[in-house]
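Internal QA ticket QA-208
Title: Verify multi-chain structure generation after dependency bump
Assignee: T.L.

Test input:
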Amino acid sequence: MTIIFKLPPSFDENEWFILASLFCLIVCFIKIPKIFPLNMRISIFLFYAVIGLTADVIIAADYPVDLYTITDTPYLELFDVIAYVINYPIYGLFFSYIISKWKMSLLSLSFLIVLWSGLTAALEWLSVQFNVFTYHGWDTGHSLIVYLFIFSLSTVVTKLFSYCWRKENLA
Amino acid sequence: MLTFSFALLFCLILIGFYRINRLPVTIIIPLWLFIMLISGLTFNSIFTNLGYIDKPMTADRYVTYHVLHKLISPIGLLLIVNIYHRLRVPLKWGWTILGTAFFMIGEKIVEQIGIIKYVDWNIGYSALMWFSIIVLCLIFDHLLERGDHHL
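Actual output:
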């Protein structure tokens, strides 16, 4: 595990930030009611993990562009993987939970996407202060645009998943 | 051009998959995403951390790599899982090894075309990697089937 995923050169503020946010997210995850069937919950988890990894590979790898570094080095570190497979999915699950729990009009859904993207960009700005991300040619404004796209896509995907699982349960 | 060819290949495999598939969509979705995540983390660590394979550095090859990683590999593995379910126990292991061989050959063809370039990588590592990914998929599929009706 440690050979494939590099260990951080020093255990500093970005690792602590990832661990603290991990703890808060797990506590919130335990508290929220489970409204999705187990396999749908797993699918939502995996979707956010894949979207986070894919976005970072496209924007922050050496080709085609390298606009920011995640944690300490350009390598895939153990704490990057923790963020991909636990932090991003739980945070994303909250968004899917909100849009599934309450019936929303298209207008209120659009408002929520803008609001959630803004909140995510604000959290990213906070993580930048703890050196989780180091920008080189990127800024939080760019992230906001990417988040608007990601959470619009996530809305469509969550609705699609709900449809698939409802249809499967009726069959 | 390469991207177009591989996208076409994906469409052909998709038609074949649609004909033989017995897995419900509630298993296909998480399994597809699981394959994308596991293989994504594995390939990225091989490219970036270990440097055993050079990743594609031209637009056409780069997009082709993503078609391979996000579409062709998952559907190939889903085909393997589908056929695995139909076989009797002694044949299941044989099929897993045959599936590994398919992916090894596929990877070698991709390397010969020039989409990826081996640096410190060889076919033995490919065998180990694809066998591990296939076994992980089968374990995950088993867990999903157990959790299919669990709320």
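Spot checks passed. The longest helix of chain B spans residues 59-86.
Status: verified.
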